[in-house]
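Suppose a colleague, Dr. K., hands you the sequence of a protein chain of 212 amino acids and asks what its three-dimensional shape might be. Before reaching for any lab equipment, you can write down a predicted structure in C-alpha cell form. Begin with the sequence itself:
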Amino acid sequence: MGALLPVGSGPDAEIVDRLNQLFSGTELAALRKHNKKEKLFDPNHRLRRVAFRIGAYPSRDYGNDDAKRKWFFFLHHVLPEETQDAIKKILGDAMTRTAIKAVKFSVEENSQVRHPHLFPSNSEPLTSYLNGAGNAYLVHLVVQGPMDDSAEDPPGDNDTDSGEQPIVWPKLELRRPSFGRSKSGGAKGAAKKKAVSKKKVGKKAAKRPRKR
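The predicted structure, expressed as C-alpha cells, is then:
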C-alpha cells in the first residue's frame, strides 16, 4: 500500500490484507464503537499514529527489507497531506455510515504520477469512491513505484495525539474441538475387543491336547 518492495506483493500485499481486515466485520464494528468517544480521523489525529495504534502495518519478517519502518516513513514523509486528508475523509465517513459494510484497499504502480494520490483523484465527492453496490468504499492508491531504503522508527507511545483513549478490540473466542465417538466405541472399545480376543485365544489353547 505504501509502495514498498515490490508494489502489490510482499509487504504491500500484507498491509493491504491487514487494512481490509481492519475495516470490515467485527474489527470495523470495534472501530466504529471507539469512534463514538474518540474521532480517529479528525484533523487532530495523524494517519500514521492511528495506523500504529490499530496495528495497520506489516509485521512479517522480510529479511533485510524493514517493511514496518518503510511503511511509517511513507505515511510520514511520502504520502502528501492532501492524500492523507482524502483518506481520512473516507474513513471518517465509514465510521458513522452504517450502510457501508467495508472499506477495501488496493494499490497501483504508475510511473507517470508525481505524488501518491487516490483514484481518480483526491478531490472527488465521497460517492465517487463507492463500489457499484454502494456498500463499500474503495481506497485505491496510485503510486509512482517502489520506495527506496529510507526508513524511520514508527510513532511510539510517547508520540500521542490529543484525546487518545485505549481501543477495545473484540475478544478472540477459542472453541474446544469436539470428537465424535466411533461406532466401535473409540479407544476403549478397541482395547476391550483386544482383551476379548486374547481371552478367546487362551481358551482355544487350553482345549488343545498336549503333544507327548
